[in-house]
Design a protein that fits this description.
about 325 residues, alpha/beta, 8 helices, about 25% strand
Length: about 325
């Protein structure tokens, strides 16, 4: 069975950098994000890795792994929220003590999603694909982003409904943040390869395909064992977001995951909006989605609210979900069962 952590606000929110830390010139932004969380009633425990960044990582792999392990075994910690993602989180997997983990939320996206997916696959502990700490530094949160707190406050056997956003951000303006950090100006429209309405049911698994694809073929990406141990062979809804892959690299990655058996017993696939979906030789992201849908004979929906094009829904690895898309509007219901 999937195990769902409980958010206890009288305990600490731990901040560690299992991938990239914060360079000195951005410490003030990080401190602002921390202050916002404290105003909202969170007590913070900040790891040493957060304050440093060198050679594309916050610290050597074993240092990052040991700090993460300490926080996962720390009874005073209820939730772990990295400042952001990065590039080389995969280096720490061999140092992570999956056997000794206590149940606590891990929240984040981008490179963090590799760690989150590995934890859920290895332990059956639910993890969260949602905003990074720096995304929460605004005076307020937009309605879609704000759902992260309600999701992690859910108790076992409860459910929660999220709706597609009304507007999304086309381009980052890091030096001109709004009161909610993002500039939400473009009309959201969820799309489907198949004619709508589309309805999909299954257990959620996924993350940033740039990084989680590298779990395939390793002990940390054994989907078959996860299904046998934790979800009694329920079907899976995969969700992917593409940060930097070319469309042809995206296609190669999807074929690799198909050949690795990740899409066996898959009821449907969701793709988030992407800043990287530029065509290659007239081959488009939509072509990649259509090819995969034809090969797998399952529904595929895309341009959804998660990933590097804000805002994003909060999706829980391991949760049972019902997803509906109709005429550009989407609904995601998650059940903690």
């Amino acid at each position: 069975m999937i195990r769902y952590p409980l958010l206890e606000k009288d305990k600490n929110m731990a901040i560690t950098a299992p991938s990239s830390g914060i360079p000195k010139e951005l410490h003030s932004m990080f401190i602002l994000a921390c202050n916002r969380m404290m105003v909202r009633g969170y007590s913070l425990k900040i790891g040493e890795t957060v304050w440093t960044q060198n050679k594309a990582k916050s610290a050597p792999a074993w240092v990052r792994g040991e700090e993460f392990n300490r926080l996962m075994m720390d009874e005073s910690v209820s939730i772990i929220l990295p400042p952001w993602g990065g590039e080389l989180l995969i280096e720490i997997l061999e140092y992570v003590d999956f056997a000794q983990m206590q149940e606590k939320w891990i929240v984040g996206y981008s490179d963090t999603s590799l760690l989150s997916l590995a934890v859920t696959l290895q332990t059956g502990i639910a993890t969260v694909h949602g905003p990074n700490l720096v995304d929460l530094r605004g005076e307020q949160w937009d309605d879609t982003t704000a759902m992260w707190e309600r999701v992690v406050s859910l108790k076992p056997d409860q459910s929660i409904v999220q709706y597609s956003s009304k507007l999304f951000q086309k381009e980052w303006q890091h030096h001109n943040p709004t009161s909610c950090v993002f500039h939400l100006t473009e009309q959201t429209y969820w799309k489907s390869v198949q004619p709508t309405p589309v309805k999909i049911k299954g257990r959620l698994l996924g993350g940033c395909i740039d990084v989680i694809r590298h779990l395939a073929g390793t002990p940390f990406g054994n989907i078959q064992t996860f299904k046998e141990r934790y979800i009694q062979h329920d079907q899976i809804i995969w969700y992917f977001e593409n940060c930097e892959l070319s469309v042809t690299d995206l296609r190669r990655s999807l074929v690799q995951l198909k050949l690795a058996g990740w899409f066996t017993d898959c009821s449907g696939i969701m793709f988030g909006r992407s800043p990287a979906n530029q065509s290659v030789g007239n081959y488009t992201a939509q072509d990649a989605y259509e090819d995969l849908a034809e090969e797998l004979q399952i529904p595929i929906v895309y341009d959804l609210d998660f990933g590097h094009v804000p805002p994003q829904m909060t999706l829980v690895n391991g949760a049972f979900a019902e997803v509906e898309v109709d005429n550009g509007v989407g609904v995601v219901v998650q059940y903690f069962v």
